[in-house]
């Protein structure tokens, strides 16, 4: 009996920061399943349990397919830690729902709430240098501007993962 809806397969991965921080291998057995016919789009969506989405590119390196560009943001913003268990459920041809299970609790990892900071922009400039003798002699004006913007941050509580922003 067919329901008319195509059932896509799932796969799992264990997150190891030393191997999966930059990209995540998609299992060859998954890619070659008859339902997929070896075709996974280059642009995919990863959706976590809260419904938040990340746009990620897939890329072949040799014979292996990886979640690549965008993967780092996904793992950082979901605070993935050592041995977190990830279940990738292919909902549509280009969309995966990712269930994140924590090794220590063997349960779904609690979602980390984003701390929104004000998106204030400050412009810092050096004072007008027209009265400065050194600048007049060199014939150069000096002006430095810095655009400082705050952004969304996550507070990862994992003892296995530390992210320092530049």
Automatic annotation (TrEMBL):
List keywords of the entry alphabetically. Answer: DNA-binding, Nucleus, Transcription, Transcription regulation
Q: Which PROSITE patterns match?
A: B3
Gene3D superfamilies with a match to the protein in the record: DNA-binding pseudobarrel domain
Which Gene Ontology CC terms are recorded? nucleus
Q: Where in this protein does the record put region Disordered?
A: 120-146
Among InterPro entries, the record links this protein to: B3_DNA-bd (IPR003340), DNA-bd_pseudobarrel_sf (IPR015300), Plant_B3_domain (IPR050655)
Q: Any keyword Transcription?
A: yes
Q: Which residues cross the membrane?
A: none
Q: Where is the composition biased (Acidic residues)?
A: 125-140
What SUPFAM superfamilies has UniProt attached to this entry?
DNA-binding pseudobarrel domain (SSF101936)
Every TF-B3 domain range? 9-104
Q: Where in the cell is it found?
A: Nucleus
| Coiled coil regions in record | none
* Domain of life (superkingdom): Eukaryota
In the record, what terms sit under GO molecular function? DNA binding
Q: Give the matching PANTHER family.
A: B3 DOMAIN-CONTAINING, B3 DOMAIN-CONTAINING PROTEIN OS03G0621600-RELATED
Protein name, per record: Putative B3 domain-containing protein isoform C
The species this protein was found in = Glycine soja (Wild soybean)
């Amino acid at each position: 009996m067919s329901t008319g809806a195509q059932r896509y397969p799932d796969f799992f991965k264990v997150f190891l920061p030393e191997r999966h921080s930059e990209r995540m291998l998609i299992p060859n057995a998954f890619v070659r399943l008859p339902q997929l016919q070896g075709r996974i789009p280059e642009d995919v969506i990863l959706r976590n349990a809260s419904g938040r989405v990340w746009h990620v590119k897939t890329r072949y390196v040799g014979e292996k397919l990886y979640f690549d560009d965008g993967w780092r943001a996904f793992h950082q913003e979901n605070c993935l830690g050592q041995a977190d268990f990830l279940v990738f459920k292919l909902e549509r041809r280009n969309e995966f729902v990712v269930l994140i299970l924590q090794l220590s609790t063997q349960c779904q990892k609690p979602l980390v709430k984003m701390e929104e900071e004000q998106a204030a922009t400050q412009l810092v400039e050096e004072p007008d240098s027209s009265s400065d003798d050194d600048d007049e002699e060199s014939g150069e004006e000096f002006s430095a501007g810095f655009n400082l913007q705050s952004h969304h941050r996550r507070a990862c509580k994992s003892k296995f993962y530390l992210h320092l922003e530049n």
